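New to this. Please check this record:
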Amino acid sequence: MSDDKKTIETPLPKLDERAIAKKYGLRELSYPDSEQIKALVTFLTAAIESGRSGPVPKTAVVVVLDFLQATVNRQHITKGPRMPQEEFDALQTPYYLAARVVTKVMRDREEGSIKGKVYESTYLSLNHFMELLRSLLDPGCYWLRLKDLPAGVRDVMDGLRAFLTYYPEQRRKGRAL
């Protein structure tokens, strides 16, 4: 066989999650920038330490809430027969990273056995985070006006703070823990 008849394989282009989402009619995933994360982490830290809620950084809350909701929505898509596995994996990556980060947070807190429950605990954790963020945006939320934040709210705030601390680092690395 002569050399001119051989096929030349071109390297696959780097998969762009946003372009793939647009291709399949999904909303683009907008990641919160570092300043928004810092503002929200600072707010959460102050609220956890003092037990009271100060002024809420609403822009940061809205952006993080939108990001978490889009991440959970990515978990609910199914692979179509004409969708290449690489594109499907690229769409699922944000949730996969979230699962790894939630697992690390739970391991750091030593919250019981999480083996075999990674995606279930991630889904529940992300939903708790979203509910907390929605409450922060709700002007009628009763615990924002209380002298002391309820213990459950503080726990969710602490989990969200840890999640927001680890997730950007893992996304930058481009891999899970």
In short: Residues 14 and 134 are 35 Å apart (CA to CA).
